[in-house]
Amino acid sequence: MEHLHNGFTLELCPGAFPLSTDSVALSGFVSLPKKAAVLDLGSGCGTLGLLLCARFPQCTVTGVELEESAHAMALHNAQVNGLTDRLTSICADLTAIPSLVAPGSYTCCISNPPYFAAGPQSKAHPTARQEVHCTLEDVFRSAGWALRYGGDFYLVHRPERFAEACSCASRHGMEVKKVCLLRHKPHDPISLTLLSCRKGGKPGLNWEEMCLFREDGTPTDDYRRLYHL
């Protein structure tokens, strides 16, 4: 069991990824208006939804998750944290979003999708990190459908797929408005890229950087902010 901000707890399915830097960083990167309706694409056990409910007390989050066990755990996490009125899950393929929700239904979409394209090289990566059931294009297509005009899509991904993500955003009516490059130590290579894309947004890009640890291994202010220390 993981203990989160505001006293919430997160339970995971056996074999599921533990609470990770990518989920914590993405939840800290998100900015929401009051009473935002959020759609979490590929929501797993509800990790991102719980993190956002802890940060934004008036938001509601709907997760879409293909795996039945993870979907059931997300519903369990909502119940034990007293969030059944704010956090829910749909057991479905995210590529079926047009048949699940009306277009423009959500203020915000978020996703921590599989990082690695399916293929021979994907055998080295766990299934949850392979694009077996959906591609990056699928994720952007679903976000573009679900988002209202002016709504934001927040994504975490590998830096080597940044250009691909920008192309996907453009094809589905979104403009990349903010990018955060995350590294673990000052001289480390970038390990994660966080993107904020606006549906119908005008050109204009802001860059940020985030570093979690100093060279001596002590946590930075960025780390303390993300983990509420």
TrEMBL record:
InterPro entries: SAM-dependent_MTases_sf (IPR029063), Small_mtfrase_dom (IPR007848), tRNA_Adenine-N(6)_MTase (IPR050210). Pfam families: MTS (PF05175). One of its GO terms (molecular function) is methyltransferase activity. Residues 34-158 form the Methyltransferase small domain. CDD domains: AdoMet_MTases (cd02440). Signal peptide: none annotated. One of its GO terms (biological process) is methylation. Keywords: Methyltransferase, Transferase. This is Methyltransferase. It comes from Candidatus Faecousia excrementigallinarum. The lineage of its organism: Bacteria, Bacillati, Bacillota, Clostridia, Eubacteriales.
